[in-house]
Design a protein that fits this description.
This protein is of the alpha/beta class. The protein contains 9 helices and 12 strands. It has 2 domains: 121 residues, 3-Layer(aba) Sandwich (Rossmann fold), CATH 3.40.50.620; 110 residues, HUPs (Rossmann fold, 3-Layer(aba) Sandwich), CATH 3.40.50. The strands form 2 sheets. A 10-stranded mixed beta sheet has the order 5-2-1-6-7-12-11-8-9-10, with helices on both faces. Strands 3-4 form a two-stranded antiparallel sheet. α8 crosses α9. The longest helix is centred in the first third of the chain and has 25 residues. About 2% of the residues have low confidence.
Length: 277
């Protein structure tokens, strides 16, 4: 991922903690790669349709009371959120002297984001949005970006930075995993440690792949640790990654590993994930 390869980074904004983490990560990567930052805010058409129903009510979390869901009030709230998102993008971009634009759309959130991100080289969004649920699995928009998106996608969560702390790369000797490793090195900070998990599908090539990866890493001066695993499922990979306690997980969806294993891993692991395409 050299400067010029990633020219435009789109980031989904809704002012949630996951969205703020996404913006910080997108801005850091855009600064490293001299890329333009594009903020995307989607007015959820489902919420507006719901507010138009005569029986729709809102539940007030802090007073435990209910009231009529007012469409005009919801429209004002969405405009306020869009303004907050625009201002947050502007402050973040100007602090790093980044070129930036902001777009507001209305429609189904996953579909609108996928359509708007078609012109970008990377899409950054939170693992989950504003849902009050405590579950840690992927939200519906992140799942759509993972399954249907054609761009490199970074799924962020609060408490992590792509350029600080350890990074972990899945490597199986494929062209896709080579791109993932190259990307991880491009965004690694000066204090980063790179954990490389060599997944060997019982071919006996794991040692050779480690040497190939080491030849890529050594000129960069990045500290690296190597781990070898036999073929395992996504849940087993997730458990191993938790033991390493890494930060950003970098992988490709063009690897020798089964696609179902990679999807299971991304859905199960509670870490930010960069899927290189």
């Amino acid at each position: 991922m050299k400067p010029g390869t990633i020219r435009t980074i789109a980031v989904a904004l809704d002012c949630s903690p996951h969205s703020r983490a996404s913006l910080e990560a997108a801005a850091r990567i855009a600064s490293m790669l001299s890329a333009e930052l594009v903020g995307l805010f989607v007015e959820d058409i489902n919420l507006l349709r719901m507010a138009g129903l005569p029986f729709a009510e809102e539940f007030r979390l802090y007073s435990s009371t209910t009231g009529k869901l007012d469409k005009e009030q919801l429209e004002r709230l969405l405009r306020l959120q869009a303004r907050e998102a625009r201002e947050l993008l502007q402050r973040t971009a100007e602090a790093l002297t980044l070129r930036h634009t902001f777009r507001v759309m209305r429609g189904m959130v996953p579909e609108e984001l996928m359509s708007a991100a078609e012109g970008a080289d990377m899409l950054v969004l939170g693992r989950s949005g504003r849902s009050p649920s405590c579950r840690k699995r992927l939200g519906s928009t992140a799942r759509t970006a993972l399954l249907e998106g054609k761009r490199t996608v970074l799924l962020m969560r609060p408490g992590f930075s792509p350029a600080a702390g350890p990074l972990l790369v899945l490597f199986d000797g494929s062209e896709g995993s080579t791109r993932a490793l190259d990307t991880a090195m491009a965004i690694a900070g000066p204090e980063s440690t790179l954990h490389l998990i060599v997944v060997d599908p019982e071919t006996g090539d794991g040692d050779r792949w480690e040497k190939e990866a080491a030849a890529m890493i050594e000129p960069s001066g990045i500290d690296a640790e190597y781990h070898h695993l036999p073929p395992v499922g996504g849940n087993e990979l997730a458990r191993y990654i938790r033991m390493i306690d890494s930060g950003l997980l970098v992988l490709s969806d063009h690897m020798k590993l089964p696609e179902s294993t990679l999807r299971e891993l991304v859905n199960d692991i509670d870490y930010p994930v960069l899927v290189v395409r």
